[in-house]
Amino acid sequence: MKITVYGAGSWGIALSLVLAHNGHQVTTWTHREEQCRQLRETRMNAKLLPGVHIPEQIALTSEIDCARDAELVVLAVPSFAVAETAEKAAAIVPAGVPIVNVGKGLDAAHDYCRFSETIDRAFDGQNPVVALTGPTHAEEVARGIPTAILAASASRSAAELCQDVFMNEVFRVYTSSDIIGAEIGGAFKNVIALAAGIADGLGLGDNSKAGLMTRGLTEIARLGVTLGAKQETFAGLSGMGDLIVTCTSMHSRNRRAGILIGKGKSVQQAMEEIGAVVEGYYATEAGHHMAQKTGVSMPITSELYHVLYEGGDVHRGIAALMGRSKKDEHESETTWLT
Ligand SMILES: NC(=O)c1ccc[n+]([C@@H]2O[C@H](COP(=O)([O-])OP(=O)(O)OC[C@H]3O[C@@H](n4cnc5c(N)ncnc54)[C@H](O)[C@@H]3O)[C@@H](O)[C@H]2O)c1
Ligand SMILES: O=P(O)(O)OC[C@H](O)CO
Q1: Are residues 65 and 193 in the same domain?
Q2: DSSP state of 130
Q3: In CA terms, which of 62, 101, 131, 204 is 20 to 30 Å from 158?
Q4: Which residues make up the binding site for sn-glycerol 3-phosphate (predicted)?
């Protein structure tokens, strides 16, 4: 198939390699001409995916209209660029061509909607949308390390097409109809990974991190179910799976940013030092907004918001979480008042 991948950061390149390996005709787009020139010259993104060769069979371009005759389009840009890129692509991509979004987050420019909604709006509902998401660090996918991922879509045929296109002997793709759960899990695991990184940076223990991850997943699922997701999705690849990989891996930009903050760096210093997109920063603001909008209690997200956006003290945040009123583990916390 002819496939355009919008985005030549670490994830866009890793997925382009999977698609090229599977025999597809791949064009990978980057938004900057200068970056495109460098990629063409070196056949490598030395900053974001060092040591990974981009074979000649992958065409590199900065022309947005490269998807004119694409049969499948992949959006692999940071959350802050999904709406803008989708709007540009919508003017070019033919109706009916599936759009696979792999960016994680909510759309801050459109009242924090999910990206499938952003894309649906941009494409006037004419193109099926798939969220391809799960525990997948680009560094490992690019090296052919066995990986499992989820293709979630309201369109069964689009999810299955995505499964067929991406799946190979080291890249296993499952399908799901629960795109709400897949998108919410993918967006908000990054919040918990930042928090888990802070715990690591502070030198807290395994108990602290396991508690954060488990209660973090509880609050993500609580929000997701309120928005119409299936509870079981949060126990799957796009929920627990992605949470595990992001909270435990040194590949994770979110976890590493958290470690730097835990060690005393400012939020801005940490983001700069990472030098790649730290989605958890934006997702924390999105989560804070969604908790207020829906009335769902998201205490870890709220405390992290206080630290990241309001200069709150990390130790005070931990004390606030530990000192909350007594709860039953499965108590439903649908409002701030419980
Ligand atoms: N890297 C991974 O392992 C991985 C895995 C799964 C999902 N994701 C998700 O994929 C998305 C992209 O992440 P990444 O890891 O490729 O990021 P990255 O930081 O490696 O690269 C980001 C790329 O986006 C480009 N960019 C910056 N501003 C842009 C704009 N306005 N328009 C278009 N492009 C722009 C940058 O030049 C860079 O090439 C994120 O939402 C991330 O959470 C990443
Ligand atoms: O490096 P991170 O923390 O942005 O995580 C990347 C992917 O989302 C992992 O699945």
Answers
A1: no
A2: E
A3: 62
A4: 104, 134, 136, 189, 242, 252-254
Sign of CA dihedral 278, 282, 283, 284: positive
Report CA(78)–ligand 1 centroid distance (Å): 4
- CA-CA-CA-CA torsion sign (84, 54, 26, 166): negative
C-alpha 133 – ligand 2 centre gap (Å): 10
Q: Are residues 173 and 200 in the same domain?
A: no
Looking at the fold, whether 141 and 106 belong to one and the same domain comes out as: yes
Domains: count for the chain: 2
ipTM above 0.90, yes or no: yes
Same structural domain for residues 148 and 210? no
pTM for the whole structure: 0.97
Residue 64 domain boundaries: 2-177
The rounded Å distance from CA 254 to ligand 2 centre is 7
Neighbours of 129 (CB within 10 A): 27
Report the alpha-carbon angle 158-161-164, nearest 5.
155
189 annotated among ligand-binding-site residues:
yes
Q: Is 189 a catalytic residue?
A: yes
User: Residue 10, annotated ligand binder?
Assistant: yes
Residue 23: exposure state from Cβ atoms within 10 A (0-12, 13-18, ≥19):
exposed
With respect to residue 47, please indicate whether it lies within any of the assigned structural domains.
Answer: yes
Query: Is residue 333 assigned to a domain?
Result: no
Q: What is the pLDDT of residues 31-90, one digit of tens each?
A: 999 999 999 999 999 999 999 999 999 999 999 999 999 999 999 999 999 999 999 999
Q: Which ligand number lies closest to the CA of residue 10?
A: 1
Q: What is the pLDDT of residues 242-281, one digit of tens each?
A: 999 999 999 999 999 999 999 999 999 999 999 999 999 9
CA distances from 79 to 102, 279, 309 (A): 10, 7, 18
SS3 50: coil
11 is in an annotated binding site: yes
Q: How confident is the model at residue 334 (pLDDT cuts 50, 70, 90)?
A: low
